[in-house]
């Protein structure tokens, strides 16, 4: 009895010992990892550090087609305990490398960094338009979409200049990728900010082979600005041109994405008058007459007069409101026409969803034209009617 | 064709895994069964042996001889060696008969003894009272008067605190008055304090405890049955139940298990609990203990049985289920909305007390992607100086908190809170400053500790404290996967566990919708018209 008991105890002890033998499976302490919070892609050329390293013969077989910069945050700081000095040093570190496989470049970073990079916390991907002129967006985002760790909620932006410069900030303690990731919150303040495009959305956009726009970033003076949008051609996946801030705003109104921001016009006396949007509705109605496709766009907006520099005006009467409404309508019409001219004649692409409306309302027609939609769109006639309604004049005192 | 079939036959490593996956559970259950069999649950083997023990225990010792001198001599020989035994021989004036009093010092109020008892015996008791054989019991004016059957039981009773009286010419000894040793006054229950509700707590005296139960309300159905337990030092144990509610099968089972207890001394009701529980290997208590008469009587009305033991204020309630561990009488005393809120809060607290450190470890060491980015950044910044992996870090702090709690119980009352502050605040802060642990962990451990304090039953908190460490190990080995595995193991254990035939997880599994009224939230009293289904009571209506 005693021996049997002892043996079963032995078996028990051995089976318990098996557990710690396995160790801490795939355990990785969080402080021993580097979070990549931002990713920038530029056209291929060796990064400065890389150039020096390559000069010493440290390189591998590659073609420089893309330069990838990752932002690692937070960086190791020894003086972490001293509370007064934290915040003065920069909170991030950018690492660049070039090559022709994004994954390989990532792994190449691993022979330069002291901590493995993980992609879970990637917030933004910034792609320079120069790179997108050469490579299609599908090629360069393929890895990002395949990787299991990178979240599909990562935001995608374009950059007018070198993308790696958008990941540099002068503000101490600020991580630029968080700054960029947070910028779309201003959608409630201006329509110049488009709905952010996430990786999942990008995936569907590229695979549907439709043209689309991505918001563009511009750097200057150590600051970052959202400046218009870049048009990506659906069939080639390449960058074909950009819309400026105002066109982007108009586009946002046209696709029903924005309902904030000002419309500024000049009144009879040449003084600026500003209208604040409170709501914005747009409706695209396709019409077909034989082969000819035309669109009717109705834009309705309500808002208030928020600012006027005209001291002579008596801004309480209905007549005055109607007069202003007319002026704003004119302005809005002008902005829309500008946008459409650019889309139809300059870039010859539909990024405002005209095709989608047609596909919904007249699927039979759409099936015929969809293969060559961008060209068909550029030939079709678009009429725009704008309706501005001033609901109030804000709070002010009668003189 | 055949080759394509062969292609699908897995390789040796898959086979090994399959065999392991098959064998390990079998092995584990074998080991479990063996360990379970080792103790035999503290029960006596049935019938024949137990009768032997019974005889051993109560030798039908020497009967009284009837000869006063001889009997006195026997008694003095047997127990006269005790220095606290007081022997007083008196002569009864009216009848001129000798009598002897035996009692143990300190068990009685001496003034009462001197004034009433001695006076009566020496000067008042007359020949009409004594000398009529067999009538002496009726004639003596004591409310509590017992007759000892033999010398041995007479001796034992005297030593336990009765006053023994031997009268010349009488066959047998008389036992007067119950023992009245040093007692504590009735106090507020220390381990189950409430803001609203009776402040009364059980004491160490069985008769007081049963009377407290009785005083909860008029009823002739509350039955209390007393029996002696312990083989060497015998003690009173009482079963209390409500006759027309309790399930007779349950009552039978409880009495049977108590009858099978074989231990020389039952020091506290914890002994009873451990000797009658269903599964001694389970980390969960299958018997609830309480200091509160109101909780005990409420349990009786749900068809449960209370086990009261002399010498302890802790009363056992059987059968008990998991949901009872997180219930507090206050849930019922307050209105149902706050009662429900507090109860759900307690479920959350129990979950945190069990899982918070395990979750911390799995997030920090395995799944950095599941932490919000900003938090991940600040954790990285604060943990940069910490030299240990998260398991060691958590263990350091958890163990010191546990030591602190343990120390807090031993400390004298005025020092206790100061110690808590010194331990909790200063050690925590200093450990962070010294870079041994991260500040985030201090929050986790503090939340865990606070959560475990909010569990209304102390021993349930102990189970969770124990399991917390197991959970931490699981998390350290396998991360979130291990944590979930641990939770599933717990769940599967709990579903298998039974307390006196009642499944431990009762309203959840087996599913009894009727009892969900009183699980995560407490339904308004007007809706709780029936007793819980789990106890299978004789009369399940709470409304007439």
Q: Keywords, please?
A:
heterodimer; A: 399 residues; alpha/beta; GMP Synthetase, Chain A, domain 3; 2 domains; 10-stranded mixed β-sheet; 33% helix; 29% strand; elongated; B: alpha+beta; 5-stranded antiparallel β-sheet; Spore germination protein (chain B); membrane (chain B); transmembrane helix (chain B); UPF0353/GerABKA_families (chain B); Spore_Ger (chain B)
Description:
The complex is a heterodimer of chains A (399) and B (544). Chain A has 399 residues and is of the alpha/beta class. Chain A has 2 domains: 31-76 and 90-243, no CATH class; 250-392, GMP Synthetase, Chain A, domain 3. Helix content of chain A is 33%, strand content 29%. Chain A contains 12 helices and 14 strands. In chain A, the strands form 2 sheets. In chain A, strands 1, 2, 3, 4, 5, 6, 7, 8, 9 and 10 form a 10-stranded mixed beta sheet that branches. In chain A, strands 11-12-13-14 form a 4-stranded mixed beta sheet, with helices on both faces. The longest helix of chain A has 30 residues, at 318-347. Chain B starts with a helix and ends in a 41-residue tail after the last strand. The model of chain B is unreliable at 42-57 (pLDDT under 50). Chain B folds into 3 domains: 68-176, no CATH class; 206-320, no CATH class; 343-503, no CATH class. Chain B has helices at 2-8, 12-39, 48-57, 68-79, 110-124, 136-139, 151-160, 206-214, 248-260, 269-276, 293-301, 322-325, 329-333, 336-365, 373-383, 390-410, 416-433, 439-453, 458-496, and strands at 85-92, 97-104, 145-148, 163-167, 173-176, 222-229, 235-242, 288-290, 305-309, 315-318, 498-499, 502-503. By secondary structure, chain B is α+β, with helices and mostly antiparallel strands. The radius of gyration of chain B is 31 Å and the shape is elongated. Classes of the chains: A alpha/beta (399), B alpha+beta (544). The A-B interface holds A 5, 8, 11-12, 15, 19-20, 22-31, 33, 35, 37, 73-74, 76-77, 80-81, 118, 120-121, 123, 149, 151, 175, 178 and B 24, 27-28, 31, 34, 38, 363-366, 368-371, 373-374, 376-377, 379-386, 389-391, 433, 435, 476-479.
């Amino acid at each position: 009895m005693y021996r049997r008991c002892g043996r079963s105890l032995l078996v028990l002890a051995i089976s318990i010992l098996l557990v710690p033998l396995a160790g801490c499976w795939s355990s990785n302490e969080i402080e021993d990892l580097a979070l990549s919070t931002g990713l920038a892609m530029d056209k291929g050329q060796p990064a400065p550090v890389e150039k020096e390293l390559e000069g010493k013969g440290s390189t591998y077989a590659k073609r420089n087609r893309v330069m990838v910069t990752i932002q690692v945050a937070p960086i190791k700081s020894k003086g972490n305990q001293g509370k007064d000095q934290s915040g003065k040093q920069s909170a991030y570190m950018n690492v660049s490398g070039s090559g022709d496989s994004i994954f390989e470049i990532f792994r190449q970073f691993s022979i330069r960094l002291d901590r493995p990079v993980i992609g879970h916390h990637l917030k933004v991907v910034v792609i320079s338009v120069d790179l997108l002129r050469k490579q299609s967006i599908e090629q360069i985002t393929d890895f990002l979409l395949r990787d299991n760790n990178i979240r599909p909620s990562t935001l995608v932006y374009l950059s007018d200049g070198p993308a790696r410069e958008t990941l540099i900030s002068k503000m101490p303690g600020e991580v630029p990728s968080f700054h960029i990731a947070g910028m779309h919150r201003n959608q409630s303040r201006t329509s110049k900010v488009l709905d952010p495009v996430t990786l999942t959305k990008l995936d569907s956009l590229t695979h549907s082979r439709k043209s689309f726009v991505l918001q563009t970033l511009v750097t200057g003076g150590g600051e970052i600005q959202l400046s218009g949008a870049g048009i990506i051609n659906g069939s080639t996946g390449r960058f074909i041109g950009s819309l400026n801030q105002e066109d982007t705003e108009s586009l946002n109104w046209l696709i029903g994405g924005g309902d904030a921001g000002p419309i500024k016009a000049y009144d009879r006396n040449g003084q600026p008058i500003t209208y604040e949007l409170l709501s914005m509705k747009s409706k695209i109605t396709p019409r077909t007459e034989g082969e000819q496709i035309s669109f009717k766009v109705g834009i309705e907006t309500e808002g208030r007069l928020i600012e006027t520099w005209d001291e002579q005006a008596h801004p309480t009467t209905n007549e005055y409101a109607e007069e202003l409404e007319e002026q704003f309508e004119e302005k809005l019409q002008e902005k829309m026409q500008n946008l459409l001219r650019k889309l139809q004649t300059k870039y010859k692409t539909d990024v405002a969803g005209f095709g989608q409306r047609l596909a919904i309302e007249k699927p039979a027609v759409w099936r015929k034209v969809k293969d060559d939609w961008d060209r068909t769109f550029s030939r079709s006639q678009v009429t725009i009617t704008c309706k501005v309604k001033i609901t109030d004049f804000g709070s002010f005192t009668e003189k | 064709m055949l080759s394509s079939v062969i292609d699908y036959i897995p390789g040796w490593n898959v086979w090994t895994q399959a065999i392991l996956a098959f064998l390990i559970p079998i092995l584990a259950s074998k080991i479990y069964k063996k360990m379970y069999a080792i103790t035999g649950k503290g029960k006596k083997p049935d019938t024949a042996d137990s009768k032997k023990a019974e005889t051993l225990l109560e030798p039908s010792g020497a009967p009284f001889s009837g000869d006063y001198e001889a009997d006195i001599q026997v008694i003095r020989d047997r127990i006269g060696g005790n220095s606290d035994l007081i022997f007083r021989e008196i002569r009864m004036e009216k009848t001129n008969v000798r009598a002897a009093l035996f009692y143990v010092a300190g068990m009685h109020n001496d003034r009462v003894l001197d004034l009433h008892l001695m006076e009566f015996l020496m000067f008042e008791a007359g020949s009409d009272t004594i000398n009529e054989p067999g009538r002496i019991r009726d004639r003596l004016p004591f409310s509590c008067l017992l007759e000892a059957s033999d010398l041995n039981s007479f001796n034992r009773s005297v030593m336990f605190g009765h006053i023994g009286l031997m009268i010349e010419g009488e066959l047998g000894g008389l036992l007067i008055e119950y023992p009245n040793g040093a007692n504590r006054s009735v106090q507020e229950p220390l381990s189950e304090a409430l803001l609203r509700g009776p402040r009364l707590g059980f004491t160490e005296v069985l008769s007081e405890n049963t009377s407290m139960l009785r005083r909860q309300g008029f009823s002739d159905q509350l039955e209390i049955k007393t029996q002696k337990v312990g083989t060497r030092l015998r003690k009173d144990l009482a079963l209390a139940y409500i006759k027309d509610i309790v399930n007779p099968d349950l009552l039978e089972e409880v009495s049977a298990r108590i009858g099978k207890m074989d231990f020389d001394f039952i020091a506290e009701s914890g002994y009873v609990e451990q000797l009658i529980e269903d599964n001694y290997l389970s980390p969960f208590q299958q018997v609830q203990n309480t200091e509160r008469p109101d909780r005990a009587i409420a349990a009786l009305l749900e068809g449960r049985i209370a086990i009261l033991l002399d010498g302890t204020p802790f009363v056992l309630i059987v059968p008990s289920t998991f949901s009872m561990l997180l219930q507090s009488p206050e849930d019922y005393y307050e209105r149902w909305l706050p009662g429900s809120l507090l109860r759900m809060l307690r479920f959350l607290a129990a979950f945190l007390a069990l899982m918070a450190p395990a979750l911390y470890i799995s997030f920090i060491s395995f799944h950095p992607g599941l932490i919000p980015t900003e938090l991940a950044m600040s954790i990285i910044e604060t943990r940069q100086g910490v030299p240990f992996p998260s398991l060691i870090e958590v263990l350091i702090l958890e163990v010191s908190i546990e030591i602190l709690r343990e120390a807090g119980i031993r400390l004298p009352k005025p020092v206790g809170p100061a110690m808590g502050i010194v331990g909790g605040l200063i050690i925590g802060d200093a450990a962070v400053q010294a870079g041994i642990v991260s500040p985030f962990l201090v929050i986790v451990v503090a939340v865990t500790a606070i959560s475990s304090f909010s569990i209304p039953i102390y021993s349930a908190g102990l189970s969770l404290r124990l399991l917390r460490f197991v959970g931490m190990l699981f998390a350290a080995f396998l991360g979130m996967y291990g944590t979930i595995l641990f939770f599933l193991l717990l769940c599967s254990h709990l579903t298998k566990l039974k307390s006196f035939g009642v499944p431990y997880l009762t309203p959840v599994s087996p599913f009894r919708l009727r009892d969900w009224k009183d699980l995560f939230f407490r339904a308004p009293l007007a809706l709780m018209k029936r007793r819980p289904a789990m106890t299978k009571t004789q009369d399940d209506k709470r409304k007439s």
